[in-house]
Design goal:
The structure holds two protein chains of two kinds. Chain A has eleven helices and 30 strands. Chain A is an alpha+beta fold.
């Protein structure tokens, strides 16, 4: 694929689409159209209308690294200074060990306030050849209308990535036939078709459709081909040789009025045939084609609808993206990200982050030699065959250990999935046994105890896996978990639960170790309320003032005198746990006045994540 | 008449135990139990079930995508999601995709049948942490919404109380309204969540199509 299309190339062989796109770009229009003009002026260069130069900054968007997180720790980033503003953004290389994964790289437009990236693609050179798009979608929607043209329901069909036959540019691509099916819901009397970009925020890209056809068949006509109820065999209407043409029976709409276009594609022997297309160059906009209600096809509830069309698309996302590498073999790589136009062609300098995955010590040549040497000495004194087997096993073990370290996070979850399934099985069997068990308590109680123990085990494991997963390293995730955990524990114990936890919190990182400690302390406090205090209500409060995170767990139970009662022990552990992370834990309790555990921990300010 | 139930769960032992549980209830009729989303999509539309019990983590296609596709074909199917992790944000994604309720697997033995009956009769459970995620979702939604897709002041009020940890009964008492009314409001919140997430893109078309 061409890195940046030159004007000559465009003149000679790519005239088809680009002259057309130029035409669409110069039609005067509201603001979104001017944005579109800016987008195309860069691409078509020499044909650009006067004033194009002012508009070029649209494509000056330059990807930068927003954050790199290695094994849960944010990595400080340094630029390789070259003093050349037009060149690629080069970062100083990162060196890592196989055990340090996962590696999470977040790319965004920078600095804030500069033009957004139209579409972002990335690639790990040395590992993959293809540019990767970050997932986003466009939609074909069937909207069902009742007698009064009110929407009753809708069925949506997703388009994402590149269609089969996509060849980098529309004129190099083949149209692909696609078929979807839906059932007509109750109260529907007509069906209206919509082609929409922006189903998910940040969608950008290109999608063209022709020979759109709806057929309907009643449930009893299962075997028949059905009756055609709508066909868009070829576009008719005015101005169809221009992107702003008006096809009969359709209207354009959306915040991004520039998105719906008429697009000509010369495939087959039909000459240049106009297609319905979406050209989305703005990650913040939504736009699409809307079939006019007057031409919406009649349907009958219960009918099965078949939506067929011939189409091509290349859909990605703009403005920012995130890539995670769970493991990489030892070697050197370069992570590159490029701002591209809506068709996926680079528009300017790229971002480069060299990565080196170093061999772990036991995978290095000298260590293996040493291992072979040591075991070789054993060979002299032992049975040859036996020691040869031992060497094999030893090497295998080292190999395995390396693999285990690389995928530790993933495996923790896999193991838990497996155990979770077994726990579920045991608990379900206990439930069934209880159903058929005699009324004799000496039989029923052990079964109930088994069930209770299994559920406690499952919950404990769940918390460990939650703490280990770096995707939960935020204040908001912690607050959601605190709310869920407290709610579930108190609900199971039949206690009233009152939560005072802000729903919306600033973005702040809470590392795995800290989250785990905080949860241990909260658990201890809840445990105290449940097991010893005879409480009927527990109140959990969370506050964050920008510097310090405070959590309070208060019950209305018996309370105790700390001087005489020993059971503050668990809570004293809590104090030590909080001191380890620079925080404090205070327990207030008096006999008859309930117990209140207050913990606080400083959360140092950092760059905002989003 | 008994309600037709299908089960989609990849672990054979768990699937058989769930099936036995469903069979033990006279008001439910087990129509089939499947080990993958692919098999489920092939078989379920022909069975026309009322209720589906769906595991979130399935090999290859996951349970959430399976729900989206099933709902396109069987818009009235009621789906109860099963999950190992209660904190998992995939529960919330499943609810957005049109699931009607969820159950943590370790509670399945005691609660599966009740949960199925609740879902069948329009009951809508909403715990504090799901309510939090609903509030966060509506707050972050980037696209403008139709008036009918925005939460009403009453629905906001109910969500706020749920976020504070109150159960439905306590919400009803606090607001001085009936439990059934609260349930109806919660159902509307789920509907709006579903519509909003599905048609975020087509919102303005809906406005225009009136």
């Amino acid at each position: 694929m061409l890195p940046v299309m030159s004007c000559d190339a465009a003149r000679n062989n790519e005239l088809g689409i680009w002259t057309r796109l130029t035409t669409m770009a110069v039609v005067p229009g509201p603001y979104p159209l001017r944005v579109c003009l800016a987008a195309f002026c860069v691409t078509v260069g020499a044909w650009a209308q006067p004033g194009a130069d002012e508009a070029t900054p649209r494509y000056s968007a330059r990807p930068t690294l927003a954050e790199v997180v290695l094994g849960g720790q944010t990595v400080p980033l340094k630029l390789e200074s070259k003093g050349d503003n037009s060149a690629d953004t080069d970062y100083q290389g990162l060196s890592l060990l196989p055990g340090e994964f996962p590696l999470n790289i977040r790319v965004a437009t920078a600095p804030p306030g500069t033009p957004q990236i139209v579409r972002l693609r990335s690639r790990l050179e040395g590992w993959e050849d293809e540019w990767q798009d970050h997932e986003s979608q466009m939609w074909l929607v069937l909207r069902f209308l009742d007698e009064q043209n009110r929407a009753v329901s809708s069925a949506s069909f997703i388009r994402k990535g590149e269609s089969p036959g996509w060849g980098g540019l529309p004129q190099n691509s083949r149209l692909h036939r696609r078929v979807d099916e839906a059932v007509v819901p109750e109260r529907s009397s007509r069906v209206q078709i919509l082609l929409v970009s922006g189903g998910t925020p940040r969608t950008t890209g290109f999608w063209a459709v022709r020979r759109l056809r709806l057929t309907a068949r009643a449930p009893e006509e299962e075997a028949t081909a059905g009756t055609p109820i709508y066909q868009l065999e070829s576009l008719r209407g005015s101005g169809l040789d221009s992107p702003q043409g008006n096809p009969n029976g359709w209207s354009r709409d959306g915040v991004g009025l520039n998105t719906p276009r008429v697009f000509s594609h010369g495939e087959g022997d039909g000459g240049m045939e106009p297609l319905l297309a979406l050209v989305d160059v703005d990650p913040t906009n939504t736009g699409g084609w809307l079939q006019l209600t007057a031409t919406a096809a009649p349907v009958v509830p219960g009918q099965r609808l078949r939506v067929e069309c011939e189409e091509m698309h290349s859909i990605g996302r703009g403005s920012d993206a995130e890539v995670t590498f769970r493991a990489l073999p030892v070697g050197r790589y370069v992570f590159r990200a490029w701002a591209t136009d809506e068709l996926g062609r680079p528009t300017g300098p790229s971002l480069r982050l060299p990565l080196e995955v170093r061999p772990a010590f036991y995978a290095t040549a000298w260590f293996r030699l040493l291992a072979v040497g040591v075991i070789g000495a054993g060979l002299l004194g032992g049975v040859r065959y036996f020691t040869w087997r031992k060497l094999q096993r030893e090497l295998q073990r080292l190999e395995q250990r390396r693999a285990v370290e690389e995928e530790r996070t993933r495996m923790a979850r896999d193991i838990h999935d497996e155990m979770g399934a077994r726990f579920t099985q045991i608990s379900l069997m206990a439930g069934r046994a209880l159903k058929s068990a005699p009324a004799d308590e000496s039989v029923r109680e052990p079964i109930r105890n088994i069930n209770g123990a299994v559920k406690e085990l499952a919950a404990a494991l769940e918390e460990i896996v939650w703490a280990a997963n770096p995707s939960h390293d935020s204040l908001e995730e912690f607050s959601n978990y605190l709310s869920q955990y407290t709610g579930a524990v108190l609900r199971d114990a039949g206690l009233r639960c009152r939560l005072d936890i802000p729903t919306l919190l600033p973005a702040r990182t809470l590392a795995s170790g800290l989250r785990h400690r905080l949860m241990m302390v909260v658990k201890e406090a809840l445990n105290n309320a449940l097991k010893h205090a005879r409480a009927t209500e527990v109140r959990v409060q969370l506050e964050f003032d920008g510097e310090c995170l405070r959590v309070m767990v208060a019950d209305n139970g018996d309370g105790f005198d700390r001087a005489t009662v020993k059971r503050g022990n668990g809570l004293e552990h809590s104090g030590r746990r909080m001191e380890e992370v620079g925080g404090t834990c205070v327990v207030e309790s008096r006999p008859g006045a309930g117990t209140c555990v207050r913990l606080s921990v400083p959360l140092p300010a950092e760059e905002t994540r989003r | 008449m008994s309600a037709g139930v299908v089960i989609v769960e990849d672990d054979r032992a768990v699937r058989e135990n769930l099936a036995a549980l469903v069979r033990s209830d006279d008001s439910l009729r087990l129509l089939g139990a499947f080990g993958s989303a692919e098999e489920a999509l092939r078989e379920i539309p022909g069975l026309q079930p009322t209720l589906a019990v769906m595991d979130i983590n399935l090999p290859k296609m996951n349970g959430i995508e399976c729900v989206v596709r099933l709902k396109n074909q069987l818009p009235r199917l009621l789906v109860l999601m099963l999950t190992v992790y209660e904190d998992d944000d995939s529960i919330f994604r499943a609810l957005k995709a049109g699931a009607n309720g969820y159950l943590v697997k370790r509670d399945a033995a005691e609660k599966l049948l009740d949960a199925l009956h609740d879902v069948q009769h329009g009951g809508a459970p909403m715990s504090a942490h799901i309510a939090r995620q609903v509030v966060q979702f509506f707050h972050r939604s980037e696209k403008p919404a139709l008036e009918s897709e925005q939460l009403s002041p009453r629905e906001h009020e109910i969500l706020d109380l749920l976020v504070k940890g109150l159960v439905l009964k306590e919400v009803a008492e606090q607001l001085g309204i009936g439990l059934e009314t609260v349930r109806t409001h919660v159902n509307h919140i789920y509907q709006k969540l579903h519509v909003r997430s599905r048609t975020e893109a087509v919102v303005k078309y809906l406005r225009q199509g009136q």
